[in-house]
Amino acid sequence: MGNGWRRRLWLAHCIACLAAAPALGQSAAPRKTLLIVGDSLSAEYGLPRGKGWVALMEARMARETPGWQVVNASISGDTTSGGRSRLPALLKQHAPALVVIELGGNDALRGLPLAMTQANLAEMARASKAAGARVVLVGMAVPPNYGRQYGDDFFALFAKVAKAEGTALVPFLLHGVADIPDADAMFQPDRIHPKAEVHPRMLDNVWPVLRPLLK
Fold it and tell me: Could you tell me where the beta strands, DSSP code E, fall in the chain?
């Protein structure tokens, strides 16, 4: 084969590669990011890696709603004040399309003012929306020994924030776990953190609220 034919074949190959490049670029669309900002209930405290509800959710998303990636920025012991201070950097770094806020339980354990917890959650919701993300607020409750009035007011503040800020709401992450007759059997020895076998139920509490926002 002469040099002329070789040159023509090489040019034809280059033209074909250039023609295919845009199509290849279009097929590799970037995935959207779901950011979780939570405490030990979302950080797999006391659990084997991959057994917490967030990891289970990521696996379910891969099967049912592909095109998303999960960033779990949860820290054991975190409060709403800690989450509020961490959130701006997380929003800037990850540019999430959806933010799940699972905080407040440690505020109650420390006896922090409910007004502060409510204000922190509201500010986190506003900051997330300002960054272009939709928001899911995850509600929590406290044991009866905290007093009826405090418990009722704490539980109600999540719905108040969700209504005021227009966010989606998971009413109670531990529904069917902490509010059943033999609840102690569902928890690790500290009686605060659910066992690994309970986390699928926790995901089932979140998923009906979350799934429509992933489409």
Answer: 32-38, 68-72, 98-102, 134-138, 168-170
Same domain, 14 and 42: no
Enter the pTM of the model: 0.86
Range of the domain at 114: 31-214
> Do 95 and 154 belong to one domain?
yes
Q: Is 107 a catalytic residue?
A: no
127 and 78, same structural domain?
Answer: yes
37 and 101 both lie in a single domain: yes
Instruction: Compute the distance between CA of residue 192 and CA of residue 174 in angstroms, rounded to an integer.
Output: 11
Tell me which amino acid residue 62 is. A
| 48 and 23 in a common domain | no
- Out of 76, 94, 193, 204, the active site residue is 193
Sign of CA dihedral 59, 65, 68, 73: negative
pLDDT digits 0-9 by tens, 64-120: 999 999 999 999 999 999 999 999 999 999 999 999 999 999 999 999 999 999 999
- Catalytic annotation on 81? no
